[in-house]
Design a protein that fits this description.
With 146 residues, this protein is an alpha+beta fold. It is built from four helices and six strands; from the N terminus they run H-H-E-E-E-H-E-H-E-E. It has one domain: Gcn5-related N-acetyltransferase (GNAT) (Aminopeptidase), CATH 3.40.630.30.
Length: 146
């Protein structure tokens, strides 16, 4: 868990509170790996964690999943790590007869690479909630259908 949290900090994008949420999700998953709402994939090179993805079935839906987190070590970005993690998540979702994957992200400048990543990997922007995270920081919602 500590290596994933260290990676989240290394990205330089997430607040302390957001990293705390990553920790909470990991703790829930570790306590009960087969019976929770969160599923994680870790991409490692040697003993170094260079990528992390977390997703789960959206409550009260049929086959809709949320991509809660997907982040990659800045030194390994644009090398296929994020795409490999996303393909693994999609493979599992498809096997479970999932219909779509939802990803929310910020409109702030540090999240421009995330928005481009989603668009480059077949997601379509479907919603904008202005001032969602804070005044001037809106939420974009992206959807990928299977």
């Amino acid at each position: 868990m500590e290596r994933v949290l260290a990676l989240a900090r290394k990205t330089g994008v997430f607040t302390t509170g957001e990293i705390g949420v990553v920790k909470e999700i990991l703790e829930v998953e570790l306590r009960n790996p087969s019976g929770n709402d969160y599923h994680s994939h870790i991409f490692e090179e040697g003993d170094q964690v260079v990528g992390f993805a977390c997703y789960g079935l959206t409550p009260m839906t049929e086959g809709t999943y949320d991509l809660y987190w997907l982040f990659v070590d800045p030194e390994h970005q644009r090398r296929g790590v994020g795409g490999a993690l996303l393909r693994e998540v999609e493979k599992v979702i498809r096997r479970a007869n999932g219909r779509m994957l939802i990803a929310d992200t910020s409109s702030s400048p540090p999240y421009l690479p995330a928005r481009r990543f989603y668009e480059e990997h077949g997601f379509r922007k479907v919603a904008l909630v202005e001032d969602y995270y804070s005044p001037g920081d809106s939420r974009f919602t992206y959807v990928k259908r299977f």
